[in-house]
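Forum: Protein Structure Q&A
Topic: Joint prediction for protein chains with partners

I've read a bunch of threads here and the consensus seems to be that you should model interacting components together rather than docking separate models afterwards. I'd like to see that in practice. Below is the full input, 223 residues plus whatever partners are listed. Could one of the regulars post the assembled result?
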Amino acid sequence: GAGVSQSPRYKVAKRGQDVALRCDPISGHVSLFWYQQALGQGPEFLTYFQNEAQLDKSGLPSDRFFAERPEGSVSTLKIQRTQQEDSAVYLCASSLGLNQPQHFGDGTRLSIL
Amino acid sequence: AQSVTQLGSHVSVSEGALVLLRCNYSSSVPPYLFWYVQYPNQGLQLLLKYTSAATLVKGINGFEAEFKKSETSFHLTKPSAHMSDAAEYFCAVSDEKLTFGTGTRLTIIP
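Posted by a regular:
Agreed with the consensus. Here's the joint model:
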């Protein structure tokens, strides 16, 4: 009965380093979403997968951000050449399908020094 | 584009008092609306959802929300606040992806 699992919970990186954030969705959930939550703000959409297909990446703030879900299960969000403005909590959510309730992981808090 | 507006970034109520958190939506089609709660250092937990089956939606922890098309509102209520209700609450509208409001921080006064 596991929920959405994200790792690591906390990540500290120096500016310019690359980071990779992992999301393990609920088994059987075909839809997977990534959101970015800045301090004191609501989550903002980054990208969305239906199985292994990335259907919407309109929220990715720059080409330094890249997400993949190669086998339609685990997903990785990669940020290259990190900048201080990338500091935020990155939330992953999964759902059974379109417009179904999304179940969230506890997030990865990324701090760029 | 669909959007939601949450009125009041901070709400304080006494323990045992009525909780009312406001949410108004903007959508050109019948919306899918959700309320989520976020406790410190945690992800978002679904409280309830509106999917047009009924205008009064009951959720977990004693919360409920009423969809009012004429007012484009989906306000969240709870008859009697408990200390454990202190958290951040987000209203959201779904168009495949979720678009969230800016959130309301609920404080419970003992």
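Chain B touches chain A through 23 residues (CB under 8 Å).
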